[in-house]
């Protein structure tokens, strides 16, 4: 296995850990965590995203656009599909059952 293959394997593992943390948050809530610790599902998601970014940085991957542009493009696309889901009746507003993620403001309004 080459170093690049090793890092790609690590990247895939980190992506899987993000999926697992999101699944726990969906089942038990963002504020829920492990008994006897101060960890929360929200914190675990943030940690795993940081781990993924660290490994991605080690790969020294280069996109065709800047990261900011890619993020803005993705936010716009997700918002578009959220609106479509609302119109279809499959997306409802957040309920205040504890800590819910609030969507970031539209592009251009971020600080």
Which terms would index this structure?
111 residues, 2 domains, flat
Structure at a glance:
By secondary structure, this protein is mostly helical. It folds into two domains: 62 residues; 42 residues, no CATH class. 60% of the residues lie in helices and 0% in strands.
Largest sheet: none
SSE string, helix = H, strand = E? HHH
Portion in helices: 55-70%
Label the structural class.
mainly alpha
The stretches of 5 or more residues where confidence is low (pLDDT under 50) are: none
CA gyration radius, whole angstroms: 17 Å
> Strand-residue fraction?
under 5%
Number of strand elements: 0
Number of domains: 2
Q: Categorize the overall geometry.
A: flat
The termini sit apart by 42 Å
Number of helical segments? Answer: 3
Mean pLDDT: 89
Describe what you observe in this structure.
The protein is mainly alpha-helical. The chain folds into 2 domains: 1-62; 63-93 and 101-111, no CATH class. 60% of the residues lie in helices and 0% in strands. It has helices at 3-28, 41-59, 67-88. α1 (3-28) packs antiparallel against α2 (41-59). The longest helix has 26 residues, at 3-28.
Q: What order do the helices and strands come in, and which of them pair?
A:
Layout: H1 3-28, H2 41-59, H3 67-88
């Amino acid at each position: 296995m080459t170093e690049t293959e090793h890092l790609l394997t690590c990247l895939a593992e980190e992506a899987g850990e993000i999926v697992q943390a999101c699944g726990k948050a969906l089942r038990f809530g963002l504020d829920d965590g492990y008994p006897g610790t101060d960890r929360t599902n929200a914190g675990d998601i943030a940690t795993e995203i940081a781990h993924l970014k660290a490994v991605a940085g080690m790969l020294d991957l280069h996109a065709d656009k800047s990261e900011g542009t890619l993020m803005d493009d993705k936010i716009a696309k997700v918002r578009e599909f959220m609106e479509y889901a609302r119109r279809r009746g499959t997306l409802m507003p957040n309920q205040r059952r504890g800590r819910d993620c609030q969507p970031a403001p539209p592009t251009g309004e971020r600080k």
